Amino acid sequence: MSTQALFDSRGSHKRLLLINSSILTAYGLYRYEPLTAEAARCLVAEAQRAGDDICSAVGHHSTAVLMSRLLGIVVPASRIAVEQAVGERAIVFRLNRRPPEGAILSEAQLEAIGYELGLLTRLADEGAEPG
Questions:
Q1: Domain 18-88+95-104 sits in CATH 3.30.450.20
Q2: Residue 85: which of 47, 29, 42, 41 has the closest Cα?
Q3: What are phi and psi for residue 40, nearest 5 degrees?
Q4: What is the pTM of this model?
Q5: How far apart are CA 99 and CA 52, in angstroms?
Q6: Where are the domains of the chain?
Q7: pLDDT per residue over 5-35, tens digit each?
């Protein structure tokens, strides 16, 4: 995986998003690939060194606590809506199976279900060819 810095649509500050679903927030071309916890920590460290914003859109407290432990940073629970800009990367926390409707899971329950991390990168707008 390239560690080349990617700029968001504003062209100045970059963001590394933290999300708890592999949701596509806008039409466009994306790449979604597996990510180890170690590689995720490296992405976070790279973003911190570059002075990039790390934006949490992790909406559940227990998931935020678990991601904090995995990434080695404080991940606040935040139920904000984000739209991923072209060039932005997102570290995705994805459960291995869907929980029952309305369930609010504890950290232990998240661990029991199992999860994986992924890297979601928005490559281009709808209809555009990646550069």
A1: no
A2: 29
A3: -65, -45
A4: 0.84
A5: 33
A6: 18-88+95-104
A7: 333 333 445 899 999 988 898 999 999 999 9
- Kindly state the tokens that stand for 37: 């916890």
pLDDT tens for residues 68-94? 999 999 999 999 999 999 999 999 999
Q: Which two tokens stand for residue 123?
A: 């490559």
The reported pLDDT for the residue numbered 102 is 83
What DSSP line would sit under the chain, residue for residue? Answer: --------TTSSS-EEEEESS----SSEEEEEEEE-HHHHHHHHHHHHHHT-EEEEE---HHHHHHHHHHHTS----------PPTT-EEEEEEESSPPPTT----HHHHHHH-EEEEEEEEEEETTPPP-
- CA quadruple 7, 8, 12, 17: dihedral positive or negative? negative
Contact status, residue 12 vs residue 5, Cβ threshold 8 Å: no
Q: Which residues contact 115 (CB under 8 A, 6 or more apart)?
A: 66, 93, 94, 95, 96
